[in-house]
Amino acid sequence: DFAFGEGRFSLNLAIGGESKQTQLDEHRRKGSHILIGTPGRVADYLSSRQLTLQTCTLLILDEGDRIFEPC
Question: Which residues contact 15 (CB under 8 A, 6 or more apart)?
């Protein structure tokens, strides 16, 4: 959690190479005002309906530039 002025913000990760369950547990426990994730992991969570962006104000896609790379 981070404080800015009098507000508190929660930041969570949705990245590969880390435990999916641990990441989801953190998101469910405190929500995610700011979510930083890789496109694949975020898409995986959203498509399986394991994660919602209901409380998310800012979504940062790490390695998002790879979406546009030719196959």
Answer: 23, 36, 37, 38, 41, 62
d(CA 62, CA 39) in angstroms, rounded, equals 7
Cα four-point dihedral sign 67, 46, 32, 29: negative
Element (H, E) at 58: strand 58-61
pLDDT tens digits for range 21-62: 999 998 888 888 999 999 889 999 999 999 888 889 999 998
> Which residues, at least 6 apart from 3, have a Cβ–Cβ distance to it below 8 Å?
9
| Number of CB atoms found within 10 A of residue 9's CB | 14
